[in-house]
């Protein structure tokens, strides 16, 4: 994948990691615009290539009464407005074959969720839109097995594939990041480390996923040191009241300090 091929991506000559960041789900226009404006300011200041992330709907929910979205078209139009307002690319995840063309009309990158990355028809449908495809590594998959997911994209005539690691299941209610997987998966495609989802604590008895956000900088630093091409971070100005995945999100107020520290590490690594 060539990051320069993503529409409206900036700062590609800065020799920095790129960043996918935003809320877990689009809860409304005001919140999306507020988050995007803040992150754009930070990434422009630090010369980080930035892609706004927001799910237009949430299909993988623990309980039937969990928040799933504000309406597909309404959320997708908000993603388009974010892109047009701030001149940045956007990414959203899809869950069904029909979602591929629908979402591709509004965003620049289609993301295949971790639980669905082995679904051949879904991956192929996404790839055939011609959009960049972000393949989330299944929590149940080895790094080596992700070469097959990438190959499905390539065999569909699309060379714009990226892999995102979001941890591997460790028992019933925890995840670990195996940093040995980063160089392995970089043989197949650029690798992003999903910091916040790697710190989830799924399968809680309450039916609401937990998390350990206090470990965000620890995992992020290790990812940069180990050569990830990009970082994925879900952030919100009010994580406690976010409608999805608030327990493992980074508070928006803490993003600039984290990015400043990580850019400094990246610069040090680049001089070695």
UniProtKB/TrEMBL annotation:
Pfam families per the record?
DAHP_synth_1
Ranges where the DAHP synthetase I/KDSA domain occurs:
8-265
Q: What class of enzyme is it?
A: transferase
| Gene3D superfamilies assigned | Aldolase class I
SUPFAM superfamilies in alphabetical order: Aldolase
Establish whether keyword Transferase is in the entry.
yes
Record EC number = 2.5.1.55
Membrane-spanning parts: none
Please list the reactions this protein catalyses. Answer: D-arabinose 5-phosphate + phosphoenolpyruvate + H2O = 3-deoxy-alpha-D-manno-2-octulosonate-8-phosphate + phosphate
Task: Please classify the protein's predominant subcellular localization into one broad category.
Answer: cytoplasm
The terms describing its cellular component in GO are: cytoplasm
GO MF terms held by the record: 3-deoxy-8-phosphooctulonate synthase activity
Please report which protein family the annotation says this sequence is part of: Belongs to the KdsA family.
Please give the PANTHER family that the UniProt record associates with this protein: PHOSPHO-2-DEHYDRO-3-DEOXYHEPTONATE ALDOLASE (PTHR21057)
Q: What is this protein called?
A: 3-deoxy-8-phosphooctulonate synthase
State the species of origin.
Answer: Sinomicrobium oceani
Q: Give the taxonomic lineage as stored in the record.
A: Bacteria, Pseudomonadati, Bacteroidota, Flavobacteriia, Flavobacteriales
